[in-house]
Design a protein that fits this description.
372 residues, alpha+beta, Heat Shock Protein 90, 3 domains
Length: 372
Amino acid sequence: MTRNTVMRKYAGLVDKLAIFICCLAVYLGQTNMGIYAAVVLISFVLGCLLSYFDDYRIKAFLSVGFIVLSFFFEEFLFFLPLIAYDMLFHKLQAVNLLALVPLAELFDGDDIIMPVIVCIMIILSVLLRNRMETGRRMEERYRDLSDTAREMSIQLEKQKNELLEKQDNELSLATMNERNRIAREIHDNVGHLLSSAILQSGALKTLNRDERLSGNIQALHDTLSRAMNSIRESVHRLYDESVDLNAKLTEIINNFSFCEIVYDYNISGNPDKKVKYAFISILQEALTNIINHSDATEVKVILNEHPALYQLIIKDNGKVKKFDVNDGLGIRNMIDRVHSLSGNINIITENGFEIFIAVPKEAHSNESTGSR
């Protein structure tokens, strides 16, 4: 039960206590009837039970019970405002009409003031309950609006994060494309010019007959060769970094029409070039094997990144009749590639054909750093 619900019940009890005191005062003020403690006690208990139970059927049963008592003992009619506080607000409204019969009998007497006072108190009781119900509905509407605003805020935050992620991916892709373009231009322009300069210096060294220029020509040839090697290394490095693993794998998958592929890419960083080339080659080989040897109708390709390793999972739902690692070069090449990266590869043939590959990050990063 929430704090607001408790406060509402507390406010309802205060209202009913005030109504009970007024009903008791009117009852004690009448002179033509006897005063019975049982009437007061029963009315008080029924009023408390109506506040305690939330089930409308129980409320209807208690209300009918009070009305039946009013048929036989008209003293109970003085406490009808107390019961009306709950009786007029449950779902079974038809039972409320029964209260009109004993209430009409109250007007048959000589004293008309008391019945009028009872009716006025019933109206005040209904107004008090209506005020509380209005507050409850306003509170529920406020809570609904608050939940809607919170949900919209969460949705906007999610959309903002997705937009930022999309922008980061587009920026990363644009950066890789630009690196690829620069590497291509260096290779096509500067590389060709340096190649021509090396050939010309080599020809000049061959044709030279002046011993005094031989050392300078050789130094020029060596400088140009070192520049060419440096340019070649830089171009290869730029190209390797510009390879987008997700884009390459997506391209391979889009060209695969043998069966449906479920693709899930969960790598946020940029793996080392050897890892990228290995995963690309392994996926190509695995899909080729599926075309040639499998009756699969669905293939799952999943890439995951963990703090210490990368995972590649390729699984199809085809039936495996016979499998031997040494039967073909494709699987053997996959195993060799994974082992060259200090990784592990497991092949499972129980429910379809599954290739599970794990490649550590650290060992490979150290190897790449050392090679430079």
